[in-house]
Amino acid sequence: FWLKRVQRRGITMSFWGYALKPGATHTPKSAQNEVLHLSQACLHKPVDGKNALEVSDDSNSYALMILEKGKTEYASFDLFFNSGKYTFRNKGKSEIHLTGYFEPEALGEDSEEEVAPKKQRK
């Protein structure tokens, strides 16, 4: 797979790509405290038949998309995965190219925390 570090606005991001062979699995690895942003999947030299891309963790498996020659040969995503905790599986006869990037885990971003109002003294 490819890994290229890019510095943008003080945040280091790394391009990621992987060629997932038919019937194969892959568990992405990255530096500590990074998440994988999966951006796109496309068929490489497609053959007839459906190709399912699945993602699984220790206990569950989920279908992300189905690609098929001449119909849907690529898919765009906006999905985030903790590195090393998910495995991608190609359930088809065509190679699937996955692309995205690693970025640092958001520290405090998008987190909502309710704070109880202070009691007023009379």
TrEMBL record:
Which Pfam family, giving just one, matches this sequence? Answer: NPL
- Lineage top rank: taxon: Eukaryota
> Residue limits of the Nucleoplasmin-like domain?
15-102
Protein name per Swiss-Prot or TrEMBL: Nucleoplasmin-like domain-containing protein
- From what organism does this protein derive? Noctiluca scintillans
